[in-house]
Specification:
It contains 16 helices and 16 strands. It is an alpha+beta fold and 488 residues long. The longest helix is centred in the middle third of the chain and has 21 residues.
Length: 488
């Protein structure tokens, strides 16, 4: 059984409301230069859900007919109470001809920052994915969804009537969706964190003594000092050590450059220990010789470098460092001269890392740390803090969202983000998050709800049944909800 896509689904605690959609072909009239264009859209999928007190509208349409270059077809979705005439407007949809799309980007974008503006290329069907959300109000139970039709030339828009896109169908079954997430297990391991940076110190030719006032050295040494102070001034941490790695640019003999990098890095270590920058901190120093990894990265990112292809082929070859330099001088002299002047200075760098240990935090302390140094919390501490706001969805989601910014590839965080996206009806976002979640029963459950939002009931039931067999407690409740649709 595959659920029809030709209806909206309204999900809310206490009731479901279904609304009837337009027919598959939607005639939209666009006017230009006195002519009438019978513009046609095809409705592929449409859902509307009320989750966590928000009405979420999701439309997927295909524009089949071309738009003249200087014209736009403008669709204005509006939810209207036909009894009291209360209404709420959703952001506009602009289907632009080629010239009009340029005009929109240059002139209209600031006026309609939330609008969906798409260029309709000649002879090519245009898929339209439209998802918007508005706060639920009780009058919306009596509302219909309308599409106001407008034509537009530059900013001269004219009303061209309206049509009812959908209307409520009463006495539909009560349905709820139950996306799930996991709380990471308690983590009693040491919280090891790092503060990283790079400094570009200047040395006299073939020398390695540190001159604090030489050229840009005051600013570069201050950069190291600032990084150390960020950690040193944090009363919740203990500095374990500092590491510094020095690199030279690949010009001259490799043995000489290795000696330079070793001596200069050791000189910096001694300077940091003797000054007030890193005194009392254990420092591990190592000279790494020529910075070929940095050089290759520079070449790959530099489209304007002369003879870049030849330089990159040589740099990534299996020749020795000295042989590579000789080949570059012979086969790509113009490119080598360019990178010596513009790229090599950035390769003479010192990478430094301050390694520190963070103490555990109570729930009350986590609140403070999350606002000041959230990186000092582990995932379990962040989730304990979020669960403290389980009855405040806005605060809960803000904590999870911030955690996602810190740990964008973490499986637990992405599972939680998929849960929030499903609640909001954000289909593409939920799918993106689930792709980064490790295989687990909870992922299967949320994939089932995602299939439901896409209109595939059979796949939704199959996946939720699979999640039930794997022990997801809410799966049984979800299957009971699906039964109401199967037997309606």
């Amino acid at each position: 059984m595959k659920r029809s896509n030709n209806h909206f689904i309204h999900i809310r605690s206490g009731k479901w409301l279904l609304i009837l959609l337009l027919s598959a072909q939607l005639p939209i009239l666009a006017f230009a230069d006195g002519k009438i264009y019978n513009y046609v859209l095809r409705m592929n999928r449409s859902t509307m859900a009320l989750v966590d007190s928000n009405v979420v509208v999701s439309l997927q349409m295909t524009a089949l007919q071309d738009v003249p270059a200087t014209q736009s077809v403008v669709l204005a979705p509006v939810l209207v109470d036909t009894l009291t005439h209360q209404q709420v407007s959703f952001p506009l949809i602009f289907l632009n001809g080629s010239n009009q799309q340029i005009y929109f980007e240059r002139v209209l974008k600031d006026e309609y920052p939330d609008a969906l503006a798409l260029r309709k290329k000649k002879g090519v069907n245009l898929n339209i994915d439209y998802v918007r959300m508005v706060k639920y109000e009780p009058w919306m139970d009596r509302a219909v969804l309308k599409l106001h039709k407008q034509s537009c030339a530059c900013n001269n828009r004219k009303e061209r009537g309206e049509l009812i896109a959908a209307m409520w169908k009463k006495e539909a079954p009560v349905i709820s969706l139950y996306p799930v997430y996991l709380i990471p297990p308690a983590d009693n391991s040491e919280k090891v964190r790092e503060e990283r940076g790079s400094a570009f110190l200047c040395f006299e030719v073939n020398k390695w003594d540190i001159k604090p006032e030489y050229m840009s050295n005051p600013a570069e040494l201050q950069k190291i000092h600032n990084s150390v102070n960020v950690v040193r001034n944090d009363l919740d941490v203990t500095i374990r050590k500092m590491t510094i790695e020095g690199f030279a640019s690949p010009e001259g003999s490799y043995s000489h450059n290795l000696e330079l990098s070793v001596n200069r890095t050791e000189a910096l270590k001694n300077y940091l220990l003797m000054s007030n920058i890193a005194n009392g901190i254990s420092i591990e120093a190592s000279g790494k010789g020529e910075n070929w990894d940095g050089f290759i990265k520079y070449l790959r990112n530099g489209n304007d470098i002369p003879q870049r292809g030849k330089l990159l082929n040589i740099a990534t070859s299996n020749f020795s460092p000295d042989e590579k330099e000789q080949k570059m001088r012979k086969e790509a002299p113009e490119g080598l001269a360019y990178v010596v002047k513009n790229g090599f200075p950035s390769l003479r760098c010192t990478n430094y890392t301050v390694v520190y240990i963070v103490r555990p935090f109570t729930l009350e302390e986590s609140e403070r740390v999350f606002e000041t140094r959230p990186i000092n919390l582990n995932l379990n501490e962040i989730y304990r803090l979020a669960e403290n706001y389980a009855n405040n969805q806005e605060k809960y989601y803000s904590i999870i969202r911030k955690a996602y910014m810190l740990y964008p590839n973490d499986s637990y965080i992405n599972l939680s983000m998929s849960c929030q996206a499903i609640k909001k009806g954000e289909i593409e976002e939920a799918e993106e998050y689930l792709n980064k979640v490790n295989d687990c029963p909870e992922k299967t459950m949320n994939k089932g709800l995602l299939a439901w939002l896409k209109g595939d009931t059979d796949e939704a039931i199959r996946l939720v049944e699979q999640a039930k067999r794997k022990g997801v407690k809410l799966a049984d409740e979800q299957l009971k909800e699906f039964e109401k649709i199967k037997h309606k």
